[in-house]
Amino acid sequence: MSNATTYNFSDFTTQNYSKLLTLAKTNFEFKTFNTFKNEPKFIIWRHDVDFSMHRALKMAQLEAEQGIQATYFILMHSEFYNLFEKEISHLLKQIIDLGHDIGLHFDSHYYNITNESELESKLLFEKSIIENVFNVSVTSFCFHINNTFTLQCNKTHYAGLLNAFSNFFQKEVAYCSDSNGYWRFKRLEEMLSDKSITQLQVLTHPELWQDEVMSPKQRVDRCADMRAEKTKQWYNQTLISNGRKNIDWE
To answer: Which CATH number is 106's domain given?
Structure first.
């Protein structure tokens, strides 16, 4: 059996994404982390924006077309995008304008955090930055790449922010994730169709959903390659705008 079949490459297209949203609307009531009240039946649709704000906006537009509000967890220390670049900031503001919820995707590794006091201090610090720069309320967070310490942080709230990794969400709510470009547990379509599942948290990474069928590696490579190409284009255009040359060997 090929990897394309084993890992369901064809699941991860924008066309199929729209179909999954429609299926989810049929069987669940959409909530965000700051609107759910532990109703008998709900779905929370969450995005960890690790690599691409461009793809995040694409997903946000598809959701808005169906009247769906999702939660976008924004990473301040991504290796793939700079949240404070003008273009990236503009993309995030468009996601906000579409009515989506914004959460904090928190990288404890950046600060080498080893205790809850440090965790709460840095959560408040990053929450304040995002709220002030983007004029948006941040009420929830999730960890970026768990470690031994963060896996023990199971309280409902830290620094006043709802914890997407709390005991409640880990033990009481079903979970489906596309981490690393393939389904970590069950296929999302199967879980959305399973009548025994009444409460569900869905995690997607927008960059792992493309217009064409690709392998997980190709999807991530595409983000990295396009990021590099955009950087070169920006530099070349800056030189042209200032009447300068980009001089090579020939």
So the answer is: 3.20.20.370
Look-up of token digits 């880990």: 170
- In-domain check, residue 34: yes
**pTM for this model (two decimals):** 0.94
Number of structural domains the chain divides into = 1
Confidence class for position 38, pLDDT limits 50, 70, 90: confident
Find tokens 């955090």 and name the residue: 113
- Do 191 and 163 form a contact (C-beta atoms < 8 A)? no
| Domain assignment of residue 133, yes or no | yes
pLDDT in the model for residue 36 = 82
pLDDT digits (tens, 9 = 90+) for 221-238: 999 999 999 999 999 999
pLDDT of residue 76: 96
